[in-house]
Amino acid sequence: MQLEIITIGEELLLGFTIDTNAAHLARALAPLGVRVVRRATVSDDAGAIAGAVSEALDRTGAVITTGGLGPTSDDATKPAIAGLFGRALLLDDAILRGIEDRFRQFGYRGQMPPGNRQQALIPEGAEVLLNAHGTAPGIWLEDDRGRWVAMLPGVPREMRGMLRDELLPRIEARTAERPTVVLSRTLRTTGIGESALAERLGDLSREVDGLPLAYLPGWEGADLRLTVSDQTAATATRMLDDASAKLRQVVGEHIYGEGDDDLAAVVLERCRRRGLTIAVAESCTGGLLGVRLTDIAGSSDVFVGGVVAYADMSKTELAGVPAALISQHGAVSDEVARALAHGIRQRLGAAIGVGITGIAGPGGATAEKPVGLVWTSVAAGDTERSFSRTYLGDRREVRQRAVQGALEAIRRMVVALD
Amino acid sequence: MQLEIITIGEELLLGFTIDTNAAHLARALAPLGVRVVRRATVSDDAGAIAGAVSEALDRTGAVITTGGLGPTSDDATKPAIAGLFGRALLLDDAILRGIEDRFRQFGYRGQMPPGNRQQALIPEGAEVLLNAHGTAPGIWLEDDRGRWVAMLPGVPREMRGMLRDELLPRIEARTAERPTVVLSRTLRTTGIGESALAERLGDLSREVDGLPLAYLPGWEGADLRLTVSDQTAATATRMLDDASAKLRQVVGEHIYGEGDDDLAAVVLERCRRRGLTIAVAESCTGGLLGVRLTDIAGSSDVFVGGVVAYADMSKTELAGVPAALISQHGAVSDEVARALAHGIRQRLGAAIGVGITGIAGPGGATAEKPVGLVWTSVAAGDTERSFSRTYLGDRREVRQRAVQGALEAIRRMVVALD
Prior knowledge:
Chain A is α/β, with parallel strands linked by helices. Chain A is built from 15 helices and 18 strands.
């Protein structure tokens, strides 16, 4: 099945809101074998909406819209599309009562604003898509030739809930007899560049068993994505299993996960299994390693705590780095990174200590120490690893890459213990 | 001037990449009085590209595309649009030499990949838009009726540089004789809800001097945006000045900045002016307050350092919180927040100490202490302020809101010192 997505809203056109709904829809539809062939964004103007929906219906016969279902006069989606289908808007008493209940439930006293009454208007012959997270119901409208438009709200949380609970099951029922899918699998690597990966992959660098291989570089590392099209779900899964096994054989230790796996979560899980705890002492990353680890719920059984040793005196005061070491080697040095790792490990009695010190930029560089230079040290048991890298990018990216590099160093050290 | 934006790429349609280019373009064009009236996204297929560009040209006569200018066979933008304009692709020797130079400069030894040669093909009669950040040049193609397409690369950094340096000046030259603009101004508030803001604004809650007022709530707070359309730049600016002065009068102390102002940057600047330093002791936020402050270049003259006192023993070890206080009141309590703020302030000799302790969720709640409950304490001189809030949202959002709340508390304390 092919369909088009139309996102509606002046906010999107003006660029004040980034359109994340379209990407979410595309990813949710792919496993059902539904392919998004075009996306468009138009304003809240009824004419523009009707025009775009009409063109899209002519091309694919299937359209999902988001936005323009709210209670304000800007919200023109329903009347525009009802008009296109030649349907009147009728007040649905059950929906009206539901909206009124919701207002009472949230402690709203007094009269419901008249705009919300408008949300209970439903095009003749339409099916209602329930909204578990807001007042605006969604609409499924279909003509006698089987062409359909599904109207979802623009608020991402409402849209996602309605998509999952109401729309995907309907689409799945329609595609059941056409069971080919597009499936992807992503292997996540870090600590190795895109070109080094391609070199290492050799014959597999462009495709694996006929499946095209895409390289997706970013600050987290380079992701490798395999895609299979026009197969049944079972065949596609088997083909992805086989092809990714081949990639794993060649790329090996550089792969830390699949799909959306987060390196911090991988590190926490590996440490948890071995009963290892982590303490960190960060300078240039300002607490970002702590944030990455504590972004994961349940991190407290592994992550003990840390210090943000930003000023030199705080390196001494918080992590016990001798002031003489700093003045002798400079704050950004192998010696200080090691002293940070050992100092915080000892102070908090953790199994693993991590020290990070570097120059995030844009200022602070010297002739010998460029922007992006970061020393990282990981200490665990009798083992210690310390290294420097010069990370590319702006301040934010240097910090993100430095933290990812530190997480990878922890992962490798724990893997080596296995 | 009206125009349409077409973003090109399978990655965008599949939803693997979020389209940020379209929003950036719209925001950059608005101050020139250029209005984006429609956006579309199509795949790398030449037929789809030519179809979408042709329809858009029929509607507005002006189109910007992003993507599909790279060196791989996926990159079909140039041939598709050259075909639409009936122009041949010719090899441009100067551009070819530039690309070869760039390869050498980045230490590439051996033959340049043949795909990069393709980037030096330019449609007959086109103008080249220089790319300061990559190999793919952009293209400006115009027909004899004055209809034009500007093709920009898809990589955001390259696109943004080329837009600023090459495309905006060209568009500005064309719009000089049609000088009406759409301008917006955003006032940023925090620590006050959307409905409380509207109540406070009263008669001004929907529009100010005829300018519509939009409420944009998020974890940073609620932004208030005024928009003026179809005026000259000078009139629009004056109208925005007048209307925002009225808003400021009513909303007052809740406004911390305008536009993209970051609360952390505002806090740093206020502290810098008074020579105040900050030290932080964070528990549930895991280092995020440190990250927010150190995201700003030059923060080291205000931010001394901090601790991530995650486990209870680290609160004692790193910030000197008495263990008895924790066992008596619990780690999430007014007393512990105060002890964190005082402890870190004393240890690092800072002017301002901040303590944060709470339950970010999803686990960890008790009957008395729900998920989202956060105690924050700010201590400066003889002044101390401690408060609890129950922040809404998931783990990430609770942490973001808690840090924003702490920054706002610092800002108010420093403002009170003035």
